[in-house]
Amino acid sequence: MVGMAKKSDLPDLVGRHLRAKVLGKRHYKIADALMKKLETEMTPGERVTLESGKVFEFRDKGSMFPVGQTARRFEFKEVTVA
Q1: Which residue stretches of the chain have pLDDT < 50?
Q2: pTM of this structure
């Protein structure tokens, strides 16, 4: 959390805020493109182990119905392997 700022700090804080938003948008676009690729390569229920040893399962979140089309939504959920 950011504490109280002095008036002289406001331009810096606003600039950092705007830059963070731009970076966030860019990273969401990259993440979306990667997910689109993964959707063509993986099937729901398939698991992948990262270099860190964590295991993630590719899951189907269901359908959504934008006007005139149906879109599937997927996610990765961390799973515990016994």
Answers
A1: 1
A2: 0.65
Distances in Å between the alpha carbon of 7 and those of 10, 11, 18? 5, 8, 17
CA geometry: angle at 33 spanning 71 and 48, to 5°? 90
Count Cβ atoms below 10 Å from residue 35 Cβ, excluding itself: 14
Backbone φ, ψ for residue 44 (5° rounding): -55, 140
- Residue 58 is encoded by which pair of tokens? 């590719």
Tokens of 8: 């002289």
**DSSP string for residues in 30-77:** HHHHHHHHHHHH--TT-EEE-TTS-EEEEEEEEEE--TT--EEEEEEE
